[in-house]
Amino acid sequence: MSKLAISYQDIIAAQNTIKHVVNKTPVFTSRQADAKTGAKLYFKCENFQRMGAFKFRGAYNALSQLTKAQKQAGVVTFSSGNHAQAIALSANLLGIKSLIVMPEDAPQIKVEATKGYGGEVVFYDRYTQDREAIGKRYVEEQKMTLIPPFDHPHVMAGQGTATKELFDQVGELDLLVSPIGGGGLISGAAMVAKTLNPKCKVIGVEPEKGNDAQQSLEQGKIVKIEVPKTIADGAQTQFIGKKCFPVIQQLVDEIVNVTDSEIIETMKFLAGRMKMIVEPTGCMPTAAIFNNKIDVAGKKVGLILSGGNIDLDSFASMIKG
Predict the structure, then answer these.
(1) Domains (ranges, CATH) in the chain?
(2) Secondary structure (3-state) at 122
(3) What is the average pLDDT across 255-260?
(4) Checking DSSP bridges between strand 145-146 and strand 27-28, what pairing results, if any?
(5) Would you say the C-alpha torsion 150, 151, 152, 154 has a positive or negative sign?
(6) Residue 87, pLDDT above cutoff 90
(7) Which of 43-52, 77-86, 229-238 has the highest mean pLDDT?
(8) What span, in angstroms and rounded, lies between the C-alpha atoms of 24 and 166?
């Protein structure tokens, strides 16, 4: 195995770094979901994490590693919403200035929350402007430190703590299913799962209209696509992170995709049967299982519900349609 950006020990270190601030999120089960699939499903509810998503784990871990000089200069990031909030909240807790580059069409609830946590928001057009170039400009002009949403070892390691926590709560799994956008979450998840149970299969799920990760895994190289038009805004990435991809290549067994309509039906189930609001991206693993994209019969399966940040009007209109 070649040298990867993160190790299992990095995730244990991250767990120790963030344990005093992170929520130990619950694991839910559902008899109806088990009956529907023929499996024993364990839902890791990161929708109950601080700021409503797993992203807080990686953001706080990354900011905790900064030097005194870096903390004084502040941090900049780019994000459609959850990483934006995570950086803003983490920076607030650590007394660091944060500047967040967000798309103009980012969900209003995520924009307002980011500002509420103390982040300064700068907007860009995701279809015509390069968010990375904007972020780098602030690094050069204001000497800020860039903390990208997924392609960063401390971020990746922090995200892996959700899966470590899941294994601590329910024991070994036969299968772990995770959403995949830029690859930070699934990189950490796969490192934990394969370390604690080498036989555990790890599967990523992404939107059908944004299947760059699936294409990348199949072709053996990072495939870049146009900005996908999907309700799963947390997975509207155009390509997998360069540090994430080798981890995915070595440790992720398969990547499947789901349609927006399948995501919406899953949102209805999780709200109606399990009394949870889960944002579209967080519904993708469950949607894949419910729509037979993954063989789970007779297996002990962990699913990461990555977040619950969705505007209530949008949520209502989706599940009513």
Answers:
(1) 8-53+153-320 (3.40.50.1100), 56-146 (3.40.50.1100)
(2) strand
(3) 98
(4) unpaired
(5) positive
(6) yes
(7) 43-52
(8) 9
Active site residues: 55, 80, 206, 210, 212, 306
β-pairing, 40-45 vs 98-103, is unpaired
The two three-digit tokens of residue 284, written as one number: 């993708």
Distance, CA of 78 to chain centre: 14
In Å, the largest CA–CA distance within the chain is 57
Q: Give the global pTM.
A: 0.95
What is the rounded distance in angstroms from the CA atom of residue 7 to the CA atom of residue 288? 28
Instruction: Answer whether 22's CB lies under 8 Å from 163's CB.
Output: no
Cα(271)–Cα(28) distance, rounded to whole angstroms? 13
Q: Which residue is it, tokens 């807080």?
A: 56
Provide the percentage of residues in the chain whose pLDDT is more than 70. Answer: 99
Tokens representing 162 are 């959700």
Closest CA to 245 of 270, 288, 213: 213
Alpha helices in the chain (DSSP H): 8-18, 31-37, 55-64, 68-73, 82-94, 108-116, 131-142, 153-170, 184-196, 212-219, 244-251, 260-272, 280-290, 312-320
